[in-house]
Amino acid sequence: MEELWQIEANIDDMNPQDMEYVFHRLFALGVNDVWAMPMMMKKCRMAMMLCVLCRQSLIETVLDSIFKETSTIGVRYFPVQRVACERSIRTVCIDNIIIHVKISSYQGEIVNISAEYDDCREAAVHTGKSIEEWRRRAREEAYKQYG
Predict the structure, then answer these.
(1) pTM for the full model?
(2) CATH of domain 2-82
């Protein structure tokens, strides 16, 4: 278990397309995760709640970025406890195409294997088979090899 900090900001007067840039900037700072949720604010204005998960040492840097890159005028933050699976990146070879897979384990047991989207997308473009087919085949092969 580790202690991280969750930072939240309500944003109601900013172009939603700009959030991609905000996410990019925050990840570049080294935060653990970034997400946004739609919400309704007072006077029934549609808005987004920007949420960031980071180490305590990054709080001031993240606050500075949020205030400079968004239209929010207030931010709240609080400590949270996180338990995360152990993760490793491996590869599988299917039809001479390498696909990266993320293997997640909890207490020594594999709980999930997911295929890398970009690799599956590239394989789909190259072969004409669907992304979903590549995702399925990569997971099956990974379970055979590593499960």
Answers:
(1) 0.81
(2) 3.30.70.1380
